[in-house]
Amino acid sequence: MTSAMARRLAEAAALTALAATAACGGGDNDGHPSPEPTETVSTGSEEDGTETPTPDESGTTSDGDETDGQIFLGSDSEEPSASDIELPPTQVGKPVQGDVDLQVSKQERTTPLQDVKGTIEGEEAEMIEKCLGEVPPEGCNLIFQYTPTQPGPYTGELTLMLADGSTITAAIHGEATEGPTPDTGPTTPESTTDEPTTDEPITTEPPTSSEDETPAP
Q1: Distances (CA, A) of 39 to 8, 32, 42
Q2: β partners of residue 85
Q3: Is 91 helix (H, G, I), strand (E, B) or coil?
Q4: How many CA atoms lie within 13 A of 196 on its CB side?
Q5: Statement: residue 62 has pLDDT above 50
Q6: How, if at all, do strands 152-162 and 90-91 pair?
Q7: What is the DSSP letter of 161?
């Protein structure tokens, strides 16, 4: 009888162990189920061979300094042309500088530049860079300077004389404003307040008796 009881206890223990194993169901040692693998989505060029575009870091490109006008010297088959020269605003008595872009033909030879003269309001402008001779294919910057003597708009013209005797003329426009008045320092008005006058006390001295005066009886 003892052996039969021991056999039943052993069978019950075996069943309990099997039930515990089935309940775990292949989890990890802590009893938590293993996480399922997740899919990753690639945005690169591994699947379709395309790359994600990146923003342009260079931004807008600069074409260089701006000029106040442009003159095309022309050639045997191309007529010369000139735009108006718009000078930046300035003040009376302060010089303003004009920068003109000279361009030549890319296909044909251009006649050399012999002389340049600028006249504004009857006065001759000071030429700083004339670009005389053969103008290079990349062009040249012709620079002059003018000092206005009175406020308001003014006009003039720039004349280019080529070696073959022909000329090219470009109109000049500008405006001058009244310069600042000279600073002589702050002026303070003179004080017009009258100071109160104090009357000096009038003291009367008692009459002194004369030694020669005889006393009254």
Answers
A1: 51, 21, 10
A2: 172
A3: strand
A4: 2
A5: no
A6: unpaired
A7: E
